[in-house]
Write a structure and sequence with these properties.
Elements (H helix, E strand, L loop, with lengths): L8 H12 L6 H33 L6 H50 L2 H6 L2 H43 L1 H7 L2 H39 L1 H6 L3 H29 L1 H25 L4 H42 L23 E9 L5 E10 L4 E5 L6 H8 L7 E6 L2 E2 L5 H7 E4 L8 E2 H6 L7 H10 L3 H6 L7 E2 L8 H14 L4 E5 L7 H15 L3 E5 L11 E6 L2 E6 L1 H7 L2 H9 L6 H6 L4
Parallel strand pairs: 3-10, 3-11, 6-9, 9-10
Antiparallel strand pairs: 1-2, 1-4, 4-5, 7-8, 11-12
Helix pairs in contact: 1-11, 2-3, 2-5, 2-11, 3-5, 5-6, 5-7, 5-11, 7-9, 7-10, 7-11, 9-10, 10-11, 15-17
Organism: Rossellomorea aquimaris
Subcellular location: Cell membrane
Protein name: Multidrug ABC transporter ATP-binding protein
Length: about 600
């Protein structure tokens, strides 16, 4: 659902009915809430009628019999008390329904975000997504909690009031009907202009969240490079645009909401009083009827004012809903199983084959060109090359973070696309250069809430990568708290936990993206020993910048500008005296090869 949809009445209607679809599971509660609302409306309508009877039948003729007056007073008092009690339960029920609807909507939005493909996150700022899940759903909640209750209650009360007015004097009630088209016109006019301004406000708020998110994530870089002033100016610029959009909307609110309705109310009051004034010249008028009409008119405009004041919230909710539904309708989902009719296919050996794979992120520039290689179980295939050569792109395709259209990737001789994502995620272990740790405990981060994993298995995995040494020295050991992203742990400690997490899952295929980059030399030697054991019977794909870490690889692929420029073992590649040889010379401080390597653009 695009941005322009919210600008048309048909588009707003479509969004509204889609929102109402979330109310279907709560039919019984809604019917009960409506019945309670009907009772409160009847009570509101009966009140002025009782006062009218008292004025015309007893007060005007100065007749005060105790019995009827006591009955009349008791009835009025019971109606008011009953109204208070029923209103409480009715509002409670509506609020409960509204919160349940928003609860489900938020779950749907969050679930959708979890299923989106990496392409979506590449083009959408994180703050913008957060804004849709939090701010936009909050605006929708306000609509259900406040606006819908006011609209429904107001509609019931308006209908009841007009019925009562026609019962009292049909001719005058018919005159009062002229106010309805005026109110509807004001509403249409308001929706037409406010939708544009609210759309702008939501976009600016989304940009504010994006800028804030970026600033928080990069705070160390901002402070190191003294970018505080620039970031503040950029934030102020976006904030100013948000302010201007808000001011435009306030001007519309100030003109078309309360002031316009008050003008219509004054016109309606003039009509009613004029009618009674003219009628009084030809026939006597009943003071009670006059009181009832003026009272009903006042009661009529009370919900109208409530509705109009809530109309701004409704408009915000419609705009917010269009943004939320745009996210729910996003088609850039994570690639899944697309080519199998054989049910749940399993990865048994873990043999990987790339056949002439060409890939582009944007559909224009190829980052991989005709990539072909095979990694057999128990073998280690290393990917080396300068930044932008395509190493990480190979990993992204193998992990199904992105889909490919040219060539083929096979696992155990079957298309990668024929495996369910669940099977792939279970049988593939990924360790990144910058590991991500979740808020919780070290134990939780190793087992990732896998309830079938025992404490012994967790500790065995930690011992396997020699992470148990620093973990057991912590005050609470494996139950030690991990703050957001593991900020209180060193880079090496975070990496060791990531290794333990991957090993604990016992994958068939191991993928290492410069996994030892943040670990000191002594720890790296220990991990290399652990990795050697771990590779047995497993297929390993390793991205490496430090050539010393992959010299024992069964196959080394040297990537250059998205193509495999060289391949072979460490010794074979050195003998070729090509790109790999130049890289090896540079990394080992043999400067005689540096000049030639730089001139060829290798480093």
């Amino acid at each position: 659902m695009g941005k322009d949809t919210t600008m048309t009445t048909a588009g707003q209607r479509k969004i509204f009915f889609r929102l109402m679809g979330y109310a279907k599971p709560h039919k019984k509660k809604i019917i009960l809430a409506f019945l309670l609302l009907l009772l409160t409306t009847i009570g509101d309508v009966l009140g002025p009628i009782i006062i009218k009877v008292f004025i015309d039948d007893y007060l005007t003729p100065r007749d005060f019999p105790y019995g009827p007056l006591a009955a009349l007073g008791t009835a009025y008092l019971c109606i008011q008390i009953g109204n208070v009690l029923i209103s409480y339960f009715q509002l409670l029920k509506f609020q409960e329904i509204a919160l349940k609807i928003i609860q489900q909507l938020r779950v749907d939005v969050f679930s959708k975000v979890q299923s989106l493909g990496m392409k979506y996150f590449d083009k959408t700022p994180a703050g913008s997504i957060v804004s849709r899940v939090t701010n936009d759903t909050e605006a929708i909640k306000d609509m259900f909690v406040s606006v819908m209750v006011s609209f429904i209650q107001g509609s019931f009360l308006l209908t009841g009031i007009f019925i009562a007015m026609f019962a009292l004097d049909s001719k005058l009630a018919l005159f009062c009907l002229f106010i309805l088209p005026l109110i509807l016109y004001i509403m249409v006019l308001y929706r037409k202009y406010s939708s544009v301004f609210y759309q702008d406000m939501r976009e600016r708020l989304s940009q504010l969240n994006a800028k804030l998110s970026e600033s928080l994530q990069g705070m160390s870089i901002i402070q190191v490079f003294r970018q505080e002033q620039r970031m503040q100016e950029e934030f102020e610029e976006i904030n100013e645009k948000h302010f201007l959009a808000g001011m435009k909307n306030i001007k519309v609110d100030g003109l078309l909401l309360r002031p316009a309705i008050d003008l219509v109310y004054a016109a309606a009051l003039i009509v009613v009083l004029s009618f009674f004034g003219v009628t009084s010249f030809s026939q006597p008028i009943e003071i009670g009827v006059l009181y009832a009409f003026v009272n009903y008119l006042d009661r009529f405009f009370e919900p109208v004012n409530q509705i109009m004041m809530r109309l701004s919230m409704f408009q915000q909710a419609i705009v917010a809903s269009s943004r939320v539904f745009a996210l729910l309708d996003e088609k850039e989902v994570s690639p899944g199983q697309t080519e199998s009719n054989e049910g749940y296919r399993k990865i048994n050996k873990g043999e990987i084959t790339f056949k002439d794979v060409t890939f582009s992120y944007d559909g224009h520039k190829d980052v991989l060109k005709n990539i072909s290689f095979t990694a057999r179980p128990g073998e280690t295939v290393a990917l080396v090359g300068h930044t932008g050569s395509g190493k990480s792109s190979i990993i992204n395709l193998l992990m199904r973070f992105y889909d490919y259209s040219t060539g083929e990737i096979l696992i155990d001789g079957k298309s990668l696309k024929s495996y369910p994502l669940g099977e792939m995620r279970t049988k593939m272990g990924l360790v990144l250069q910058d590991p991500f740790l979740f808020y919780g405990t070290i134990k939780d981060n190793i087992k990732l809430h896998n309830h079938n994993m025992s404490d012994d298995e967790i500790m065995e995995a930690a011992r396997f990568v020699q992470a148990n040494g620093f973990i057991e020295q912590l005050e609470d050991g494996y139950s030690s708290k991990v703050v957001e992203r593991g900020a209180t742990l060193s880079s090496g400690q975070r990496q060791l936990i990531a290794f333990a997490r991957t090993i604990a899952a016992k994958p068939k295929i191991l993928i290492l993206d410069e996994a030892t980059a943040n670990i000191d030399t002594e720890t790296e030697e220990s991990i290399q020993t652990a990795l050697s054991k771990m590779r047995k019977g497993r297929t390993t794909i390793a991205i490496a910048h430090r050539l010393s870490t992959i010299q024992d690889a069964d196959l080394i692929l040297v990537l250059h500008k998205g193509e495999i420029a060289e391949k072979g073992t460490h010794q074979e590649l050195l003998l070729k005296r090509g790109i790999y040889h130049k890289m090896f010379l540079l990394q080992n401080g043999l400067v005689e090869g540096m000049e030639d390597a730089v001139s060829k653009g290798v480093m």
